[in-house]
Amino acid sequence: MQKIPTIFLRDPDALKHVTDQPNPACGWVFDGAGAPTRKYDGTCVLFDGARWWARREVRPGKTPPPNYRPVETDPNTGKTVGWEPVEQSAFAKYHMEALAGDLSVVDGTYELVGPKVNGNPEQVGRHLLVRHGYQTSADDDALTSLVRDFAGFRSWLLAHPTWEGIVFHHPDGRMAKIKRRDFEPARPDCSA
Known about the structure:
The protein is globular. By secondary structure, the protein is of the alpha+beta class. The protein has one domain (8-182). A 6-stranded antiparallel beta sheet has the order 6-7-5-4-8-9. The protein has a 3-stranded antiparallel beta sheet with strand order 3-10-11. A two-stranded antiparallel sheet has the order 1-2. The protein has helices at 27-30, 92-99, 137-143, 150-158, and strands at 8-11, 14-22, 35-39, 43-47, 52-58, 69-73, 80-85, 108-113, 128-131, 165-169, 175-179.
């Protein structure tokens, strides 16, 4: 689980937001490559074929949980992202509830969403596992109108307020993302 790059460069004066400058590492997105999929707002879990893992971020100076598997440390923040056994995570109970549903499990990553996960921004009635990189036909239809430039991404995401964002999947395995909250909110028109 490497950090997925954002398709635009961050604003150095407001790091929560992006500029209109494409991230050179994501040029393939603007060239039309990669399939866009919905970015769900929950918590990431991984099934490695034998065991379930939960994404866990460890801040600098903090002790990682038992059996933690670090993946990557951000050189700017010092935070390390990795995996802990899901049964010891804060989401263990909700993960078990999601597994009790009708789900065909294959190796890979999933987004755990539901009533007790991050305030349930997806507004689902029970805990679910959504496989990353796959979507419903309704999502396919919604993404057909996407224009791949700054104005296009901004207007599209603002017009779909129930979406956290979009993740692009390149055939060679690369990924790139953009979130609705990456864009600075529109300022009210004060000229009236």
